[in-house]
């Protein structure tokens, strides 16, 4: 694990964030929304405590209605519109796009969710914590991250 704080931000540099403590987990999401928003086969979700996350710069939001009926607030840079993080209905955590970290070397995903909608060619490591749908309870993903980063 690196030393904290760790920082990240959007492509144009107008929005910067600081993560003051280690995240709770990092995993890949293969849902169709992540494929559309990232333009890639999956996006990397980094779960952080809201109290550990500080942002500077102007953002714009898009309220996305998930299949569950929940409204997920998606936050983007107001200038370059890079996708930075989501606010789930539970305000205690944020789901940050791990690819926006300045240094992503330490943020190795410990699992995969929504593998039921993954690309046919996407290979899932069976030794990771994998879910065919969303993880209603993220505890196994948190535990896998803790195990991978025991001091
Ligand atoms: Zn920007
Ligand atoms: Zn997703």
TrEMBL record:
The keyword Lyase applies. Keywords: Lyase, Metal-binding, Zinc. Gene3D superfamilies: glutathione-dependent formaldehyde- activating enzyme (gfa) (3.90.1590.10). InterPro entries: CENP-V/GFA, Mss4-like_sf. The keyword Repeat does not apply. It comes from the Bacteria. PROSITE patterns: CENP_V_GFA. SUPFAM superfamilies: Mss4-like (SSF51316). Coiled coil: none annotated. Residues 6-107 form the CENP-V/GFA domain. Belongs to the Gfa family. This is GFA family protein. It comes from Devosia albogilva.
């Amino acid at each position: 694990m690196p030393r904290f704080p760790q920082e990240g931000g959007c492509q144009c540099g107008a929005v910067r964030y600081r993560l003051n403590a280690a995240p709770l987990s990092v995993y890949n999401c293969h849902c169709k929304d992540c494929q559309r928003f990232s333009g890639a086969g999956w996006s990397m979700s980094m779960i952080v405590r809201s109290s550990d996350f500080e942002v500077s710069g102007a953002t714009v939001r898009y309220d996305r209605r998930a299949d569950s009926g929940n409204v997920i607030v998606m936050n983007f840079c107001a200038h370059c519109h890079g996708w930075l993080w989501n606010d789930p209905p539970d305000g205690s955590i944020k789901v940050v796009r791990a690819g926006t970290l300045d240094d992503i070397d330490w943020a190795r995903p410990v699992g995969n969710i929504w593998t039921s909608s993954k690309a046919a060619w996407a290979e899932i490591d069976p030794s990771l914590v994998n879910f065919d749908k969303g993880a209603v309870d993220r505890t196994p993903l948190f535990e896998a991250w803790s195990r991978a980063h025991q001091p």
